């Protein structure tokens, strides 16, 4: 008979495969926050801009706002237009979440569901002088001139200022269009589509302006609105995963960017920028690494269960160890 210690170790290893977080943070939509929470969130992001460029991407206590911009710029080619798009940015949002925790914000990454106000997104108070500044200005360089990231207060990526020239009067992708692939896609590839032209790209170019920071695929994180936008992008992936968790959560396939050492997308490959994590590490938002879900917001249209959809596997319950009459 095997010693009890060996049996317990085997059970622990088996259960670790199915380990899930016990108390996930619920990421909230911007308009669900109180005024006090909004101000605190702005202050937390500002605190990250006070840190110097460090190159310490793995350490949430040292990584700065500028580090996020720099690594996204350096890896933009590898992180867009291929299978790594969603997991790369999920890892980026998770590290940003951890960095915010290190400066005192403990309520999770905040997203903005602009699809719920697609026809008048520019009226959101996220663009007020109290928070992140106007959606566009009369500045000759398109600099943001009010709010916490105004010209002369904030400078990164672009040598002049944070540039924002949102296309006021133009609608962004509405909730119906964003939800459509979630209703029909049965594989990750079908769900992903083309991130260089779908709602993700429209959000960047319309909200930030194609000639300003958000519209630039390399240094778009220069604008803090980037993180609210990619919060919605990550939530969209999460919603598709949750529509059929038994098969969608761990589904990942496709091709990587041309020129990649291994062109086949594999969950075991490390992520660009965030190379201490693999794709598999970030597929499940309630797994060993990640521990969050999302609040319900205005753009969450119903997603009927797909026929034959399997439920997420239930972690096995380890039997209680019993004393053996046979001594090891």
Question: How would you describe this protein?
Answer:
By secondary structure, this protein is mostly helical. The protein has helices spanning 4-17, 35-49, 65-79, 85-102, 175-184, 188-192, 199-209, 225-243, 245-248, and strands spanning 25-27, 292-294. Strands 1-2 form a two-stranded parallel sheet. The longest helix is centred in the last third of the chain and has 19 residues, at 225-243. The N and C termini lie close together (7 Å).
Ends: how far apart? 7 Å
Major β-sheet annotation: 2 strands, parallel
* Count of helical stretches: 9
Strand order, main sheet: write it out: 1-2
Short description:
34% of the residues lie in helices and 2% in strands. The chain has helices spanning 4-17, 35-49, 65-79, 85-102, 175-184, 188-192, 199-209, 225-243, 245-248, and strands spanning 25-27, 292-294.
């Amino acid at each position: 008979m095997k010693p009890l210690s060996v049996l317990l170790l085997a059970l622990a290893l088996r259960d670790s495969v199915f380990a899930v977080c016990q108390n996930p943070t619920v990421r909230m939509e911007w308009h669900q926050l109180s005024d006090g929470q909004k101000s605190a969130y702005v202050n937390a992001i500002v605190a990250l801009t006070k840190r110097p460029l460090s190159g310490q991407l793995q350490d949430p206590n040292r990584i700065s706002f500028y580090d996020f911009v720099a690594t996204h710029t350096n890896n933009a080619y590898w992180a867009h237009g291929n299978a790594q798009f969603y997991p790369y940015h999920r890892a980026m949002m998770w590290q940003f979440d951890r960095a915010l925790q290190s400066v005192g914000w403990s309520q999770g990454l905040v997203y903005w569901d602009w699809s719920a106000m697609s026809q008048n997104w520019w009226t959101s108070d996220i663009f007020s002088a109290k928070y992140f500044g106007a959606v566009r200005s009369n500045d000759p360089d398109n600099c943001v001139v009010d709010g916490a990231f105004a010209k002369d207060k904030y400078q990164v990526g672009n040598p002049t200022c944070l540039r924002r020239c949102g296309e006021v009067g133009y609608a962004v992708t509405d909730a119906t269009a964003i939800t459509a692939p979630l209703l029909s896609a049965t594989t990750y590839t079908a769900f992903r589509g083309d991130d260089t032209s779908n709602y993700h790209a429209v959000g960047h170019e319309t909200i930030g302006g194609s000639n300003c920071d958000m519209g630039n695929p390399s240094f778009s994180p220069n604008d803090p609105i980037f993180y609210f936008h990619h919060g919605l992008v990550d939530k969209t992936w999460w919603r598709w995963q949750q529509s059929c968790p038994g098969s969608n959560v761990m589904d990942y396939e496709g091709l990587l960017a041309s020129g990649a050492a291994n062109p086949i997308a594999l969950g075991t490959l490390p992520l660009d920028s965030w190379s201490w994590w693999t794709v598999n590490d970030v597929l499940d938002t309630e797994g060993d690494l990640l521990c969050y879900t999302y609040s319900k917001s205005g753009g969450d249209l119903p997603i009927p269960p797909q026929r034959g959809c399997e439920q997420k596997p239930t972690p096995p319950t380890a039997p209680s160890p019993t004393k053996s009459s046979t001594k090891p």
